[in-house]
Specification:
The complex is a heterodimer of chains A (about 550) and B (about 350). Chain A is an all-alpha fold. Chain A contains 23 helices and two strands. In chain B, about 45% of the residues lie in helices and about 15% in strands. Classes of the chains: A mainly alpha (about 550), B alpha/beta (about 350). At the A-B interface, helix 11, helix 12, helix 15, helix 17 and helix 21 of A face helix 1, strand 2, helix 3, helix 8 and helix 15 of B.
């Protein structure tokens, strides 16, 4: 009797937690979805005659170029990311430990900044081609050199800075893959390549999908690079329609189509892996690394080094040399203020994103219903939308609410409350959550997906409530994923430009804003210091985490054959 | 190492200010500026020194700021909108977010075609869209007008940036205003056929491409050339040395110009302060500063441009009302789309 009474009480309190969790999840998701829905709602409004013009002239180019860009960046990030992850997680070669965190570094470089640096180096009037011409006495048109400012160039630039998403997530997945499966594969006579393609990669599918879709969404939302390279992509079209034609509504409709497209891709992916499960059966234990000795080891070293050089060392060196030339003219106090404000913003936003991602991600696990699934999905759509469009989606409802409250207060109390939320840091952090939630959610989801539900069930049957399971079972197992989620959003916010630009309060600036303002005025040398600072601050969390986190993603002391 | 503590104090002040909506303590004016911070802050600080009026600043894209202004409505904290082209000011007036500013001083010093006819906004500095040519391959007597850039002898010899750029758009709008639609479309086709490469990069990139021999001519804004002549990097200086500027259409309508300018918002709470600021920006000190610091032309005829700008020679500017550039902007973009100017 006593036992059954206890069981009932647990399950009723459990149900209460579980229900309020669900309510909180839906409410949060609904609030976060507002800006995206504001954009999508533009589809219900009238269609301007400009549409006809777009269809007749440029829309086809926008669509085709964006699809090609997606394809290229997809292939590029997978190639670089999986190579890096496989080498550093599954093999042993000279310098592996350093590469395992250093390969993350390109993530800290904003795409438009890497585009500027490579253009500086490789353009027709840049040092490389000028030297070639001087050396061989060539003139314009005498030789072939790939045009850096082209669609292909944009694919390369974006792949170089976006592959870390794939790398990071796939590497975590590889490290967490159960030894037993991989060793079984090897003992069955499969070589390392076959193990990679037939076992490890298929098992890492949630991470592959999460990483690649982040990279693709960011590539679709990129404006700085394609604009600078003169590529007519979909985002260029959105801004051209808005700025050039003065048609904000048509621009919002274009953005809404972009959103629907991404949403459709998500649904397709979800359908394609229905009924597949990717949990690990045995306890997490680092698989025995494949030792690469002799020339193989050095080949691996060379491959890792070239990825790192192309994505980080070369552009950082270029930035460093530009910055050094200008260091004397810099107002250091103002500069450190920028560093401080960028850092605080990024910290606030990454924590906010992580908490909400946990709420949504774990909520989906507690209630794996279609409503929860879609709620989480819709609220993470912001990542595929150019920041400026999201900013408008945030601006409109906030200003509307503020003005409504003000109107009410004026009417009934004769007090003007003015704008309470618009133009505050709170609004800005909210916008970051809308824009970057996808990053933390995908990471948390990928982490949760690797934990068998039966673990939850066992824990629950032992009397733990949902919160207890989260705290005692999931959080410790998720440490790597949580740290990853924090890091990714932190760096993303640090680099973020357009949302910050338009939503920020008076007299508030960040490194990215400063770097962009100077770079857009083509003062690259002056932009180099803030750009370099973004990169260096981006390093801090990476280094911090390699030092302290016990996450397998960063920590490799548990080497060996245990 | 005392600067980080200064930085920390400043940061604390900035965060505190940002977290809580500013209360009107000192006399102040709030500005939404499409002109970026580095290119406006020093002169705003001078204004504060002179008048004691604090200036609070948000910078951003012109259209984005305009959208923010519209949505914030009557509660917007912004007293003043500052843009770097006439088109955005035209749009701001159309959107009803500006109020007329009657100032005898401004009307006297700002020429009529460089300000709004009903006093909603005033131009503050002038930039010219000119032809940059390679000194060793082109002589000035081969050049005449924008129209002539569509001639066949320039096939594959012209560099220009994307048609998404506002200054290209306003140049084409200027052409529409004076030459009409059919003429302009015809011209655009010839112009696009003469491109040496797909449009890309910024104006400095076009000048560098001319210097390096990728093309012989480029359409650029005058101040970029000045900035390169003035540049701290040897490469930019060297590139600028190989290039000279030509002011087109001197025998006819004149060279295309655009203005940066400002107006007071409908909801402004600090109208007097905003007026003082706009008048200050049209005053002699600020006008000189624009010229020296940004290599722009003063909007006032009684103020001499900088020595560097004078070295390019005098020119006749197109006297088309810059309001027209705003009105025809969308039409210009569509014409460029049809001509396949990327």
């Amino acid at each position: 009797m006593e036992i059954s009474a206890k069981l009932t009480s647990t399950s009723s309190s459990e149900r209460r937690v579980s229900h309020s969790w669900r309510a909180l999840l839906l409410l949060t998701a609904a609030i976060i979805a507002v800006p995206v829905l504001v954009i999508v709602a533009s589809l219900l409004q009238g269609y301007s005659p400009v549409w006809e013009h777009l269809l007749d002239t440029v829309l086809r180019d926008y669509v085709v170029n964006s699809l090609l860009l997606m394809l290229g960046v997809g292939v590029g990030t997978l190639l670089l990311g999986v190579t890096g992850a496989w080498l550093t997680a599954m093999c042993d070669f000279p310098g592996r430990r350093v590469f395992s965190w250093a390969l993350l570094l390109p993530m800290a470089i904003p795409a438009y900044i890497i585009a500027y640096t490579y253009t500086g180096m490789l353009d027709y009037s840049g040092p490389v081609q000028s030297a070639l011409r001087a050396q061989f006495g060539w003139g314009y048109g005498d030789y072939y050199f790939p045009a850096i400012r082209s669609l292909g160039g944009a694919v390369c630039m974006l792949s170089l800075v976006l592959y870390p998403y794939v790398y990071l997530l796939v590497r975590v997945a590889f490290s967490e893959q159960s030894t037993a499966v991989l060793e079984a594969s090897r003992s069955l006579g499969k070589g390392p390549w076959a193990t990679l393609f037939q076992v490890a990669l298929p098992m890492a599918r949630p991470a592959l999908v999460a990483g690649t879709s982040l990279a693709l969404m960011e590539a679709l939302a990129d404006y700085g690079t394609v604009d600078y390279f003169g590529v007519s992509a979909f985002t260029t079209g959105i801004f051209r329609t808005w700025y050039g034609l003065g048609e904000l509504q048509t621009a919002a409709q274009l953005a809404a189509f972009l959103l629907l497209f991404v949403f459709a891709l998500f649904l397709l992916e979800q359908a394609s892996r229905r009924r597949m499960r990717f949990h690990h059966v045995s306890a997490r234990r680092q698989a025995h690394r494949l030792p690469l000795t002799g020339w193989r080891g050095w080949l691996a070293f060379a491959v890792a080094l070239s990825i790192l050089s192309a994505g980080f060392l070369l552009p950082a060196l270029q930035l460093g040399s530009w910055a050094a030339a200008r260091l004397a003219d810099t107002d250091m106090a103002a500069f450190f203020t920028l560093v401080g404000s960028s850092f605080s913003l990024a910290a606030m936003a990454s924590v906010a994103c992580l908490l909400i991602a946990l709420l949504l991600g774990y909520g989906k696990r507690l209630h794996p219903g279609p409503l929860e699934q879609q709620a989480a999905r819709v609220s993470s759509m912001g990542y595929a939308v150019p920041g400026t469009v999201i900013a408008v989606g945030v601006l409109i409802p906030f200003a509307w609410l503020d003005n409504r409250v003000d109107g009410f207060m004026r009417e009934y109390f004769d007090i003007s409350t003015g704008l309470l939320l618009s133009g505050t840091l709170a609004a800005l952090v909210f916008a970051y959550v809308v824009r970057f939630l996808s990053v933390s959610l995908q990471t948390v989801d990928a982490g949760l997906a690797r934990i068998r539900p039966s673990l939850d069930e066992s824990a629950r049957s032992l009397g733990h409530g949902p919160l207890g399971v989260l705290r005692r079972i999931h959080l410790p197992m998720l440490r790597g994923s949580l740290a990853t989620a924090l890091l990714l959003v932190f760096v993303d916010v640090l680099k973020e430009l357009p949302t910050t630009l338009i939503l920020r309060p008076f007299n508030f600036s960040t490194l990215a804003v400063r770097a962009h303002e100077l770079a857009s005025d083509e003062r690259l040398a002056d932009a180099a210091l803030p750009a370099l600072a973004i990169v260096l601050i981006g390093l801090l969390p990476v280094i911090l985490m390699t030092r302290t986190a016990r996450a397998p993603a960063f920590h490799d002391n548990r080497d060996g054959n245990d | 190492m005392h600067f980080p503590s200064t930085a920390l104090r400043r940061l604390a002040a900035v965060l505190a200010f940002a977290l809580f909506t500013p209360l009107a303590l000192a006399e102040h004016v709030n500005v939404y500026s499409a002109r970026q911070e580095a290119l406006i802050k020093p002169i705003l600080e001078r204004f504060t020194e002179e008048t004691g009026i604090e200036v609070n600043l948000v910078t951003g894209g012109g259209d984005a700021l305009l959208t923010r202004l519209r949505n914030e409505g009557r509660n917007t904290p912004a007293d003043m909108l500052l843009t770097v082209d006439a088109g955005r000011l035209y749009r701001a007036r159309e959107a009803g977010v500006l109020q007329p500013l009657h100032s005898d001083f401004l009307k006297e010093v700002v020429p009529a075609h460089l300000r709004d006819s009903a006093d909603y906004w005033y131009g503050l500095s002038v930039r010219a869209r000119v032809i940059a040519y390679a000194k060793d391959r082109v002589t000035p007597d081969q050049l005449s007008t924008y129209e002539a850039l569509a001639d066949e002898n320039w096939r594959g010899r012209l560099c220009v940036r994307s048609s998404s750029n506002i200054y290209n758009q306003s140049m084409v709008a200027g052409m529409l205003a004076t030459e009409g639609e059919a003429q302009t479309e015809q011209w655009l086709k010839g112009l696009v056929a003469n491109f040496a490469r797909p449009p890309q990069g910024g104006d400095r990139d076009q000048i560098k491409a001319v210097a390096a021999g990728q093309c012989d001519l480029a359409l650029v804004n005058s101040y970029y050339f000045g900035a390169m002549q003035d540049s701290g990097t040897a490469e930019e200086k060297a590139a600028a040395d190989k290039v000279a500027l030509f002011f087109p259409n001197q025998a006819g309508r004149g060279t295309h110009v655009n203005v940066s300018g400002a107006g007071i918002t409908t909801a402004a709470r600090n109208v007097e302060q905003a007026k003082a600021l706009i008048e200050f920006l049209a005053g002699p000190e600020a006008q000189h500063w624009y010229a020296e610091r940004n290599n722009e032309y003063p909007v006032r005829e009684d103020i001499e441009p900088s020595a560097l700008i004078q070295s390019w020679g005098d020119f006749k500017a197109d006297s088309v009302d810059v309001t027209e550039l705003g009105r025809l902007n969308a039409q210009a973009v569509m014409a460029m789309d049809r001509a396949n100017w990327k």
